[in-house]
Amino acid sequence: MSFLLQPAGLSVRHLKKPEELMRATIFTAAACLGIALAHPALALETLTVAPTKAADEKAVFGTVESVHVAKARARIGGTIASVNVREGDHVEAGQVIGTVGDEKLVLQLKSLAAQISGLDAQLGQAKTDLDRAESLFQHGTIPRARLDEARTAYNVAVNAQRSRTAERAVVEQQLSEGNVLAPTAGRVLTVPVTTGTVVLPGEPLATIAEQHFVLRLRVPERHVGFIKAGDTIRYEASELGSSKPQFGKISLVYPQIQDGRVVANAVVAGLGNYFVGERIRVWVSAGTRSAFIIPESFISTEFGIDYVHLRSAGNSVVAVPVQRGLPAPRPDLPDGIEILSGIQTGDVLVKP
Questions:
Q1: CA separation (Å) from 177 to 168, 195, 308?
Q2: Interatomic CA distance for residues 194 and 87, integer angstroms
Q3: Tens digit of pLDDT for each residue in 272-324?
Q4: pTM of the entire predicted model
């Protein structure tokens, strides 16, 4: 809906001089403002200026790192028969990532199988002798000493068979330990071996970063008094494919200073799709100060000069030039701009 406001008894065609046209324009603007303030549907968005705590931010670099990096190690020595993963693959805990084979274990298993077969035959013979001795003893044909010898021979055969069966179970367990399992779920960082490589017990077949990534910050130690768990950080949104400022929180500050720097972990959403070791610019707080921060939408720029619109007690609006400072985004005010001069506490800003 559009309409034209003009003073009573005055039409545009009656205006002969430029100053008369200017006065009519000012009158029309004031009338429009009066209608906007009188009708809630046309009310202008306002903001009362008040000082707030602004962080003196310092730019540092954060590195995408995993909280824990585990190594999938071979439990037996031998030759790598197969490698089932490569760099960058995602693995689950307990997944077989490679197989180590040892031919000596196979030979031992065959030897034990033959020995167990012989012991089975001996056990069967000892059982037969024991049954015969018991029968003859009941009829009084043989003495008790002969029966005891047969029972002892049977017990020896039983224990010998159990011993060889246990040895075979040990070798089978060693063969099963040739399967190298992923110790945790995550992303494979390195695979330093190939098929046919000879490895010893304890050598790693792969390095796995646990699927819980953080930004690891290293801040100069002079800022140790300003960094604490729970602080909000801001990081470069464009580096993570976002057009808006992104924020995170410091989850842990390590108590040890390394090379003159304080190490801290920051929890940030969406790091799982980026390279481990990737560096991202991060702004951390190095103290606070009082400042005027307003949304950027309340600032208008004309001919290179920034203005804000102040509402006076008489409901008139005046454009006032201001000096714009650096962007000061916060989680509750992502488009915040610091104003260095031109406004004061209590001013009512009207959104242009």
A1: 14, 17, 73
A2: 12
A3: 656 777 888 888 877 778 888 888 889 988 888 999 998 877 778 888 899 88
A4: 0.52
Q: Which residues contact 61 (CB under 8 A, 6 or more apart)?
A: 217, 218, 279, 280, 281, 282
For residue 39, the SS3 value is coil
| CA atoms within 13 A of residue 318's CA, in its CB half-sphere | 11
Cβ atoms 223, 263 nearer than 8 A: no
C-beta separation of 209 from 187 below 8 A: yes
φ, ψ of residue 32 in degrees (nearest 5) = -60, -40
266 closest CA partner among 77, 109, 70, 63 = 63
Helix locations, 12-143, DSSP H: 18-38, 103-138
Using the structure block, give the residue that is written with the tokens 């046209």. 21
Distance separating alpha carbons of residues 118 and 114, to the nearest angstrom? 6
The Cα–Cα gap between 326 and 291 comes to 11
CA atoms of 70 and 9, how far apart (whole Å): 87
- For Cα atoms 268, 271, 273, give the angle at the middle one, nearest 5 degrees: 165
